[in-house]
What we know:
mainly alpha, two-stranded antiparallel ribbon, Arc Repressor Mutant, subunit A, 8% strand
Amino acid sequence: xxxxxxxxxxxxxxxxxxxxxxxxxxxxxxxxxxxxxxxxxxxxxxxxxxxxxxxxxxxxxxxxxxxxxxxxxxxxxxxxxxxxxxxxxxxxxxxxxxxxxxxxxxxxxxxxxxxxxxxxxxxxxxxxxxxxxxxxxxxxxxxxxxxxx
Length: 149
């Protein structure tokens, strides 16, 4: 807060980023629901597509869920026939996961829907402004990732 009781600009930006993330998550859930997916499941399928052989721990980080939640999520995707687990444990006793053909087709459809949401979110930005926003958000992320208070 500033001396006159108003929220300082950095705090306002933090709130706006969080609000934007919440609305983005809600809109993604809305378009993914008819496909039988939620955002965490979509993020898991996307990570498995982009990084085959990825560990469950890394999957959890990319989907913003706990490792325990990721195990439950993966079990559900296996039961739906979207993910296959290896019979042989890897170096850390984790079973490798991979997408099935139906998952690849579902992911293609889901990506199109999510892309539409992201396009709507950024339609007011021209190319230069969009690049600047990307760079600025990456700088914010990197500053927080560097640690410290």
